[in-house]
Write a structure and sequence with these properties.
Strand content: under 5%
Distance between the termini: 51 Å
Shape: flat
Order of helices and strands: HHHHH
Length: 185
Amino acid sequence: MRFPLTRYNALNQDGKDQYLRVMQYILYGSIILYLGRDLFVPLSFAALISFILYPICIWLERKGIGRATAIFIGLLLLLLLTSIIALLLANQVSLFLREWPTLQLKVRQLVADLTQALVSSFSITEAQQNKWTLEFGGKVVDFIVQGVPTFLNASAYSAVLLIIIPVFTALILYSRNRLIEIVFQ
């Protein structure tokens, strides 16, 4: 025998339906974000950069420069700032490389002292230490060799992002009026 739904059961059923609908939206949204991450990540970086460059572009446009030229100048300034930071980083790496021979001598002395300490304290022979070092070195080389494809993939992805993000930024800045209309609708 089937009983009619009371008012409480109807409200409870609507709550369950609403809960399932929200969970379904979360699931579908997560799937879309996961599958579209290759598009959404550079697009979000481009949106962030366009928010930063927007005041500069507006200021240049008020000075009488065209929109496309203002966007180009803004991106050029951003490229200049990024280049300066990269040059500072390269300078620091070169300073580190100049200090490398001194560090290398100190590390070799540390290893020699550690070897002597292991021999005297734990009676571990140098031959056994060399065997462990070779085994460890082999594992490190295997790890590096396995990581090379991942490194190349990440490098290629980064190179593509360096091209796509400025293009997306320019497109966002150029068509900002249309995008604002779309958001308001």
